[in-house]
Amino acid sequence: MGTQLHHNLVQTPTSNGKHLKKWRLAFDAIFFSKTLLYVAKNAVKQQLNGRLLRTLSYTAIDIKTQTEHFDKVSLSKLVEEENLDQLRSFGGVDGVVAALKSDAKNGIRDDHADVFNRQMAFGSNTYERPPAKSLFNFVLKAFKDPMIILAVVCSAFSLGFGIRKHGLTKGWSDGGSIFLAISIVIMASSVSNYWPNRQFNKLSQISYTMKVEVVRSGWRQHIPVDQIVVGDVVCLRIGDKIPADGLFLHGHLLSIDKSSLTMNIDIVAVNCHLNPFLWSGSMVADGYALMLVTSVGMNTKWGKMLSTKWKDPHETTPIQARLQAITSLTSKVGLMVASLVFLVWLVHYFKGEMRNGYVPGKTEFHEVFCEMVGILATVIAIAAGAVAEGLPLAVVITLAYSMKSMTNNHTIVRKHSACEAIASATTICTKLNQMAVTKFWLGQGFIEQGAYSQVAPTIIELLHQAVGLHTTQNSSKVSSFIWTPIEKAIICWAIQEMGMNTRELKETCSILHGEAFDSKKRRGGFLMKKNNDNTIHVHWKGTPEAILAMCSQYYDTTGIVKAIDYDTREKLNHVAQVMATDGLQCVAFAHKKTSIDLYENGISHQLIEDDCLAFIGLVGVKDLCQPGVQKAVEDCQYAGVNIKMVTRDGVLVARAIATECGILKPEQSMESEVVEGAEFQNYTEEERMAKVDKIRVMASASPSDILLMVKYLRQKGHMVAVIGTDTEDAAALREADIGISMGIQAADVAKESSDIVILDDFVSVVNVLKWGRTMFNQIQIFAQFQLTLSITSLAIDFVTAVSASEPPTIKIVATISSGEIPFAALQVLWVKLIMGTLAAVALATGQPSKELMKCPVDGKPLITNIMWRNILAQAIYHVAILLTIHFKGKAIFGVNEEVKDTMMFNTFVLCQVFNKFNARELKKKNIFKRIHKNKLFVGIIGAIIILQVVMVEFLKRFAGTERLNWEQWGASIGIAAMSWPVAWYVKRIPVPNKPFFNYLKWKN
Question: What span, in angstroms and rounded, lies between the C-alpha atoms of 557 and 459?
């Protein structure tokens, strides 16, 4: 304000120079004092932050300079090629850390300027997807259709010659009408293709939000994965997906699973000297570590793999390929018929038999050319009308509709062809594991649920340590745990029943040393320190046999330590055996407090393995049959799908679970129905092939056992779906015809390896199976309708072309026109629009029904004998009535030529409308069942009828039609409605089971 006032006074003229000088001096003093205050304030600020500002500027300069000699390309190749020699030339891992201005323990500085500079120098941790296709792309693609190009050229010539012959007022109608019709067809086709592709793009953008733990400025914090930068230090734990390429800094017993990258079970150990390289997209299989990020985003191994997958983002599914073959076949037949019609018309024209036929010596060249263009336009329309191009469109619409519906039901389809493949699944391999703690033994008895308040706080604290410090998670939310099913169940039990808070626990305790679970010793443990009193404790957990052998004492419910005598030991062993017999997985816990002096002297850096531990307790974890699983298994078996349970549990536990879920019947023989993984491995190839069908339960199964089982099932011709949740399931998920990852808690590698992700439980598998079969059925329904239309069109074209001694003037799908040819082409394009695009939307968006579950589709032809029966019956009826109207319509109805042509056109369209109802049910005679539930179908039928009325009654000049009276409309409707009783009667005719055309089968 003072500055502005000073400026105004200086610029304001005055007659009193003396007063002006005083005012100027006063305000100069004010302005100068404020300036000094501002400078002083900034000087203090700079003094306080100068060091930080200089550091930031130096960081930007250093990073920019460093990229000239140590750029993102060399860093990317360093990890991707696992080049130890190059790493040594950089000074090892420490040299890379120093070059990136990071710190192995404290990470980078936690400030926006440093993060921004690193993003500018090395890129961001995001993956660039190919841009979605716009509507213009689909319009351009439609214009590339040779039929459309020829029609546009012919329309242009027709427009030019029409204007020259009849003037602008009348001459534009022929060519202009066709131009308008072609534009409508192109736009409708483009929009109908753009919509489902837009849905696919939306579905493909569904991802799983992921945060990672990093160290910045010495503080651990969780940040979104896309905010990671080169130089960050990332904390890795079991179950974590590695978010970027990097180098191992330090940790304990780190091993990673590269199966998502190598497509095989590939678990490797990572260490500082021999293999410090970490790939983005891998999973941490064991241990924990700190990682230095060296490459992010598209520069990582995972990013480069994704870029190759995105080169062709719109995959062609198997059923689309088969329908494209049918479309190609109909187009070739259509071209043959159109060529024949063209030859017949040429003969008629040059013989002078057409209304404006050729007269030697009198017909001028431009008149001949104009007629040829008109004939060619109609021939192109005939050929285009015969092409069943709505078939691929029906697949796209059905896929989009089905995927959208499944997404609403907590199912995400990652691979479009999986929607089709699941329809023909014959076998589903699944774990059906939902484990929960059902029994807890403490002291001399079981602690009932809800009675944990009677347990001493010291025992509760020890259990919290034994359970909570064995997990690597930092949240008390159950959904955040990514662990083995047994440990996940124990963690959930401790949180829900015993009030464990893992975040608070890890703030008060520190792990000094850990030993992973050893399958040979059947135990694992860790050494920890309590931060408040610096006491050192040893915790072990494992099987009851292994833990009890290390214990000489036990805790009772009051926290008092007592000696384990012979009777007590026998009792504990007996309890463990009884729990195992009841189908429970038993986990025992033991503890010992050790001396801090021993730890400080370096004596107890390793875990104590003596027999002086105190037994804490025993938990029993059971595979529960989830609510609704038994009904879901029954539904799958009702649908002809065999459910095979593969589990790591022992034979007794696995058999109990399978019996409870309905996979096994109590009277079934264990020898023939249940095998162990090792036993299956020991079979010969002939024995595996002979027994794999009979196996319903595989117990004690390793990942390689499951993979082997899937391979032999596929060799025997089964369409196999595998349901997995863990990292180790990745290989089997990829080997199966359909890989399904189960649950929101499923490991990221399992999700990445699967075709379908179900976010809740096994019950949704039934919904996926229903939608798959519904989609297959809807495609069959539309294929039947479309082929009926194509056969009818071609038959009428052929008969009218070769049988007429003098070509009549008809304006219908299959016409040989004389004089007003363009209107016939316009009507063909109209039929192509309403019977292709709109019919595809109406018939390809059905709802699942229980009846479809009775109809397995494995090995079924796409076009079945039942469908051929329906197609030929309707085509014969339509051809017969339309040819009757064509040849005898004037006499039968007492109308002129123009009205007869309109009636033929109207009857043809209405026949297709009524045939849509017939196509809804391929086998059943009741074609109106559940029609009230399909509002989209009813709405489109109503729209087609309204548009047809408008075409006939109000667009005479545009469509070349004549208005019909009530009797003529009634005759057209009555003749078309007769297709209903024809369909009802034809469905009573039996057909052979052997397919007519084996090359149109659903599965190769």
Answer: 7
The DSSP letter of residue 851 is G
The CA distance from 343 to 329, in Å, is 21
DSSP state of 650: -
- Single out the residue of 493, 434, 500 nearest to residue 465, CA to CA: 500
Residue 592 phi, psi (nearest 5): -155, 135
CA distances from 499 to 477, 575, 868 (A): 12, 26, 66
Measured CA to CA, the distance from residue 543 to residue 523 in angstroms comes to 7
Here the contacts of 966-975 (C-beta below 8 Å, separation 24 or greater) are 968/893, 968/895, 968/899, 968/903, 969/906, 971/893, 971/903, 972/903, 972/906, 972/907, 972/910, 973/910, 975/881, 975/885, 975/907, 975/910, 975/911
Q: Is the pLDDT of residue 311 over 50?
A: no
**Residue 372: what residue type?**
M
What are 577-626's pLDDT values in tens digits?
888 877 788 899 999 887 666 555 544 445 666 678 899 999 998 766 66
Share above pLDDT 90 across residues of the chain, in percent, rounded to a whole number? 13
Q: How many CB atoms lie within 10 A of CB 675?
A: 27
Contact 315, 420 (CB under 8 A): no
pLDDT tens-digit profile of 864-919?
A: 888 999 999 999 999 999 989 988 889 999 998 889 888 988 998 899 899 999 98
Would you report the helix, strand and coil content of the chain in percent, each value rounded to 5? 55, 15, 30
Query: How confident is the model over 805-821, as pLDDT tens digits?
Result: 433 332 333 333 333 33
Residues 222-281: tens digit of each pLDDT = 888 888 999 999 998 776 778 889 999 988 778 887 766 665 556 788 888 788 888 887
Of 82, 121, 386, 401, nearest to 247 by C-alpha is: 82
Give DSSP secondary structure letters for 565-618.
Answer: -HHHHHHHHHHHHHHHHTTEEEEEEEEEEE-HHHHHTTSSSSPP-SS-EEEEEE
Of 744, 749, 733, 700, the C-alpha closest to 238 is 749
Banded model confidence at residue 330, pLDDT cuts 50, 70, 90: confident
Of 652, 632, 655, the residue nearest 643 (C-alpha): 632
Q: Are 1001 and 862 in contact (CB under 8 A)?
A: yes
Nearest Cα residue to 818 out of 219, 349, 165, 257: 349
DSSP state of 242: P
Strands of 642-646's sheet, edge to edge?
411-413, 756-758, 738-742, 720-724, 427-430, 642-646, 697-699, 674-676
